[in-house]
Amino acid sequence: MSIRYFEKQKMWILKTKQSEYGIGIDGKGNIVNLYWGGLQTSDIDYFDIDRDYEHPGAGAMSPYKDEIMPWGGYRFAEPGIKVTFSDQIRDLKLVYSHFEIKSDNVLIIYLKDDLKPLLVKLHYKLIPEFDLIERHVELVNEGSEPISVEQLMGAIWHFPIQPDYHLTYLTGLSRGENKIRHELINEGKKVLESRQGRTSHHANPWYAIDFGDAQEEQGDVYFGAIAFSGNWKIVVERTNYQTLQVAAGFNDFDFTWHLKPSETFSSPTCIGGFTKQGFGEASRNLHSYQLKYILRNANELRPVVYNSWYPTEFAINEENQKALANQAAALGAEYFVVDDGWFGDRFDDHSGLGDWYPSEKKFPNGLNPLIDHVKSLGMKFGIWIEPEMVNPDSHLYRKHPEWVYHFPGRKGTELRNQLVLNFCREDVREYIYNCLDELLSKHDIAYVKWDMNRSFSEPGWPEAPSEHHKEIWVRHTYGVYGMLEKLQKKHPRVMIESCSAGGARMDMGIMKYAYQLWPSDNTDPFDRLFIQEGNSLAYTPKAMMAWVTASPDDNNLRKTSLKYRFHSAMMCPLGFSLIFDDFSPEELEEIKSYISQYKEIRETTQNGKLYRLVSPRSQYGAAFQFVNDECSQTVLFAFRHAPQFRHPSFSIRLRGLDPQGIYACKQFNLERSGASLMNRGVNIPLWGDYSSELLVFDKIN
Residue ranges of the Glycosyl hydrolase family 36 C-terminal domain (predicted)? Predict the structure, then answer.
């Protein structure tokens, strides 16, 4: 069994393929962490663990290793639960009640407050094959009075005491999302969070902990994430007693949940994992988990998508879209997506959001003639929407100004000339659902790009009872999830791409409902190497859309070749948004050849294992390798930033191959053993700024 309970020792051992997690009951009745790390040989290895340890210099103030860390007593670390009862008692003293092992991989531990009628359920679900644990916490009000929940984490993770701890996390900004940072953890708290109503550009709900010696393919690495797309918080806390804990869950900023009698409130799911094989294996375990359990329709290959944004922007009409569709289909596009500007009175970003019907001026005959044309070319049709937003200059807002988040008498802050619709309100959700359902029912739309281009401001809900006002950060996100689930149940074959002004909604919460995610509005192929590398620490490349766009790029005015741009994008599900008149016939044929090549390798790049061989943060360049599950094909992408001093390229050593197998690369007329490719490597001559190469090795008999 993956989960076992030892009555005499009052402990549970949770075992995955290559790791173990130990939980026990201490002398005071607290549920505490005993161990997290590699496999132990025998059950007796747990019997000598001191679960009542006190630091010599702390005594009763010694840091607890509580599995949920309720606020109360002598606990001063970041709490996992903070509540206020109706009589203003503001602490918790939880005691163990009982447990259930629901299956080989699900454990629930029940705790109760020793005074108040609050039941707390600690949920653990093992993903043994990927050495992961899913955790969440459930609160049940068993009394007759409401309880104010002021903080709720999904997990508190504890780590072995070591001389040094290092934190790896993702940070950035719009058009520069999810860049990798690595730093020493000193005493105090490091807070990663979003207070924006969405996951945010500035931080991502993922982290990794190591002891200072972990590398890409070796060393102990602990890692975790939160599956939630609203306000989240990760607190990395090193105490003065040299212990380390990570608390992960809802952000407590401006938050209170009114828990009524007999009601239940659950934290977001938190995922944690351990590996002895470095950051690379940590990522591959997460990727495999997402492909098997999380990403919507993960078994389907992602199509080549053409998006018409860059050629026409808001100047959309039936004629120019048909012309673009003709050219996109000829080059190999499989889906044709019309971006912003097709609806209402939408001629720029000042008006029209909320009016989800085809523009009579741009499409006097409706969308169906364009859709029929796209389908006649062998492509499927897609469209852009932003359902959570509204322009003040729209029919919807003029009819229902009360439907946006607002504080009475306070002027709303417009960003991109738009306001945020209150998805906590059932009437708002029902109206938007009906609009989208009608759009999808009356048109053969196979792909929806769901955008969210701004964060929240003035987060008021004046129509609601006062006790619900600070629930909006959670209710809005669950409102979005609920609408996506309802739409997909009614229209199961519609693919949904999640976008939020680029990568501001990149997490495993939205991944359950989205076919793929948009990592950034920055399509500069050089910048994308860094963004895609950072994203790959936490998310499978199959979930990350990448476009080929014009050169020079509008972000940095950098000039790059078609080859370099396609190679950068082909590591993800491929899209392109190009102005075809800018290209010669020879260049159009070159584009067609890259798209054709991509279709030949996408089974491996989308479903295979990723090895980050050379980081783009290196002086040399970057190299990424994909290997299919059978080790019968590997695809290598190599990039060079800027050669200097006539230094030649160096050998890139591959990974994950069959050492005894023979691999052939037709492109270079090369045959080598897997062992040779991994030990000696392959030298790829790359000269000139922003040069690249793509090599495919197939295993031969």
Answer: 622-697
Question: For the chain, what are the domain ranges?
Answer: 3-294, 305-607, 613-700
The dihedral built from the CA positions of residue 459, 464, 469 and 471, taken in this order, carries a sign that is: negative
Report the candidate in 100, 96, 119 with the shortest Cα–Cα distance to residue 108. 100
- 574 vs 47: which has the higher pLDDT: 574
DSSP state string for 144-212? SS-EEEEEEEEEEEE----S--EEEEEE--TTS--EEEEEE--SEEEEEE--SSSS-SSEEEEEEEE-S
Q: 44 falls in which pLDDT band (50, 70, 90)?
A: confident
Q: Which residues contact 315 (CB under 8 A, 6 or more apart)?
A: 341
Catalytic residue among 26, 66, 113, 451: 451
The yes/no answer on whether domain 305-607 falls in CATH 3.20.20.70 is yes
- Tell me the one-letter amino acid at 361: K
Provide the token pair at 225: 């994430």
Report how far residue 590's alpha carbon sits from residue 208's, in angstroms, rounded to the nearest whole number: 41
β-strand 221-227 against 106-113: which pairing, if any? unpaired
Q: Which of 131, 252, 355, 521 is catalytic?
A: 521
Top-level CATH class of 613-700? mainly beta
Report d(CA 602, CA 586) in Å as an integer: 24
| Residue 60: per-residue pLDDT | 61
Q: Measuring CA to CA, how many Å separate 347 from each of 35, 361, 671?
A: 60, 10, 57
For 653, the token pair is 């050593």
Cα 451 to chain center, whole Å? 15
Could you tell me the pTM of the whole model?
0.97
Return the pLDDT at 701.
78
Cβ-proximal residues to 667 (8 Å cutoff; 6+ apart), any chain: 695, 696
Q: What 3-state class would DSSP assign to 118? A: strand
pLDDT of res. 62:
66
CA distances to 562, 648, 695 from 642, in Å: 17, 11, 20
Note whether 498 and 545 are within 8 A (CB).
Answer: no
Hey, what are 701's tokens?
């008999």
Q: Which CATH architecture has domain 3-294?
A: Distorted Sandwich (2.70)
Question: In which band, very low, low, confident or very high, does the pLDDT at 61 lie, cut at 50, 70 and 90?
Answer: low
pLDDT for residue 59 is more than 80: no
Phi/psi for 568 (5° steps) reads -65, -40
Token digits for 381? Answer: 């049709």
Residue 521 catalytic? yes
Q: Which of 27-31, 286-290, 405-409, 474-478 has the lowest mean pLDDT?
A: 27-31
Closest CA to 651 of 636, 666, 662: 636
Active site residue 252: no
- How many Cα neighbours within 13 Å face the side chain of 170? 30
Is-contact 459 473, C-beta < 8 A? yes
Angstrom distance (rounded) from CA 625 to CA 610:
6
Cα gap 113→212, rounded to integer Å: 39
Question: What's the angle, vertex CA 153, arms to CA 96 and CA 450, rounded to 5?
Answer: 140
* First vs last C-alpha separation in the chain: 40
- Digit-coded pLDDT (tens) for 441-481: 999 999 999 999 999 999 999 999 999 999 999 999 999 99
